[in-house]
Amino acid sequence: MNIFPRIVFVLLGLFIVLNWGLIMAGIIRKIIARLGMRRGIKVFQPYINLIKNYSIRSQLSHGVMFYLGPVFRLSGGVGIFLFMPLIYGSDYWSNFSFTGDLILITYFMFFGMLGMALGAGEGGHPYSAIGISRGLAQFTAIEVPMTLAILSIAIQYQTLSISEIVAAQQGGIQNWTMVTNPLATIAAMLSFLGAMGHSPFNVVMAPQENPVGPPTEYHGTFLGVLQTNRAILHVIEAVLYMNLFFGGASNWGVLIIKTFLIYFWSVFVGMVFPRFRVDQSIPWFLKIPLVIGIAAIVVFII
User: Fold this and answer.
1) Distance between CA atoms of 139 and 193, rounded to whole angstroms?
2) Residue 53 is inside which H or E element, if any?
3) Structure confidence at residue 215 (pLDDT)
4) pLDDT of residue 211
5) What does the pLDDT average to over 245-259?
6) Who has the most CB within 10 Å: 13, 71, 135, 203?
7) Cβ neighbours of residue 124 under 8 Å, at least 6 residues apart?
8) pTM for the whole thing?
9) Is 180 left (phi over 0), alpha (psi -120 to 50) or beta?
């Protein structure tokens, strides 16, 4: 496909992913509210919040890096999207995926977190350093078992191309990585809980402790950028796990169903378990998921 039609389909795909992320956020919050015997927000409330924040102009000044933090965060989410194949077998929805794109995507997953750390470092909140240390420490712990799971499936399929990994899973559920490599799937899905930031791993913002974190330090357009990234990132990370472990998607309907179920896994756990302390959260990822990730590699090496 020529470059200009591809760019058009990439932008269209980004539009679809953004809107699905906003709709899914509204649906999830509605479900959580109903389980708590509350009415909850309107499903389209994320759209209202986004429009409201983009219409507000910030009057604060904390330095250049403070403003670049949300930009870096959004760049990380969009960067993952640009190199993520969305629909298996479709040249239109393969984005800019290439051989070895899995390595690049793992780098982008950490890029946004580092950008936010630099931005929060120039904020005016006295507890910014606490949030930075918590966020980077926990995310590093999350990446260890996730990386082991990726190495395991790379050894299994002898490739680092997401498209080739999806192709190897075609032919039925029995060919999905979930079935052929359950240890890697378990390690990755446990890491996914921390990546989504729901309880019990929402130690960065810690809403029960202090009113801190990006929703407090950033407002107006900057908060709108963060909300845009969250909508994109939650969907596209679910797409990554779908491609690696659950057979990919042959059309947009399958993609929407699978990403909702994958994302709801983290929401379900968050509704059942209370939040960990920092000294509980980080060691947890370096125990159970780490051991399972190592076992996943050993099985295919032997």
Assistant:
1) 11
2) helix 45-54
3) 58
4) 52
5) 94
6) 203
7) 60, 62, 217
8) 0.90
9) alpha
Cβ neighbours of residue 117 under 8 Å, at least 6 residues apart? 132, 135, 136
Q: What is the pLDDT of residues 90-139, one digit of tens each?
A: 888 988 888 778 888 988 888 877 777 777 777 766 777 777 777 788 88
- Rounded distance between C-alpha atoms, residue 299 and residue 280, angstroms: 29
Phi-psi region of 277 (alpha: psi -120 to 50; beta: other; left: phi over 0): beta
**96-126 burial: b if 16+ Cβ within 10 Å, else e:** ebeeebbebbbebbebbbbbbbebbbbbebe
Q: Over pLDDT 90: what percentage of the chain?
A: 42
With 0-12 / 13-18 / 19 or more C-beta atoms within 10 angstroms meaning exposed / middle / buried, residue 252 is middle
**Rounded Cα distance, 123 and 214, in Å:** 10
| pLDDT at 247 > cutoff 90 | yes
3-state SS, one letter per residue, for 222-258: HHHHHHHHHHHHHHHHHHHHHHHHCCCCCCHHHHHHH
Q: Where are the domains of the chain?
A: 3-301
| DSSP-assigned states of every residue in 91-155 | STT-TT--TTHHHHHHHHHHHHHHHHHHHHHTSS-TTHHHHHHHHHHHHHHHHHHHHHHHHHHHH
Whole-angstrom distance, CA of residue 171 vs CA of residue 176: 9
Distances (CA, A) of 76 to 159, 230, 245: 23, 11, 22
Which candidate, 263, 301, 243, places its Cα nearest to that of 89?
Answer: 243
Looking at residue 206, its pLDDT comes to 63
Q: At what angle do helices 252-272 and 182-196 cross, to 10 degrees?
A: 70
> b/e for 30-40, b at 16 or more Cβ within 10 A?
bebeeeeeeee
Summarised one tens digit per residue, pLDDT across range 49-105 is 899 988 887 766 677 778 888 888 888 889 999 999 999 988 889 888 887 788 889
Say how far residue 120 (Cα) sits from the centre of its chain.
20
Q: What is the DSSP letter of 275?
A: P
